[in-house]
Write a structure and sequence with these properties.
mainly alpha; single chain; 7 helices
């Protein structure tokens, strides 16, 4: 897939999450294949609702749906903009590894605490 197509796909995902009616985002069907197969939330469960709440400036709700919703939204937009301009996104290795480890830690904590994001 070309970088420009990937950028458009990322932007379309952000727009879809933002423009989805709030009721549908909160009470819609479960689309996550991991959750449907296991009954457990995946590491990204709650991101669509988080982005939907952020688009409505409900930042507390956004954080509640997924603690990394806002940073993931910002990163997605920045990377999509860089790809759209034909630039290769540059993320220092330590940042990516640290963010990934923190994301995994949040997921494990949510699983253990019963706050699966769903």
């Amino acid at each position: 897939m070309s970088e420009r197509r990937l950028a458009w796909l990322a932007l379309a995902g952000v727009l879809l999450a933002a423009l989805l009616p709030e009721r549908m985002a909160r009470q819609g069907p479960t689309l996550c294949p991991f959750r449907r197969a296991t009954g457990l939330p995946c590491p990204s469960c709650g991101i669509t609702r988080s982005w939907n709440a952020a688009a409505r400036l409900k930042l507390r709700d956004s954080f509640r749906f997924h603690p990394f919703g806002l940073p993931a939204l910002a990163a997605t937009l920045l990377i999509a903009l860089q790809l759209g301009r034909g630039r290769q996104p540059k993320v220092p290795a330590g940042v990516g590894v640290g963010f990934g480890a923190a994301w995994l830690g949040v997921w494990l904590g949510r699983l253990r605490g019963g706050r699966g994001g769903g």
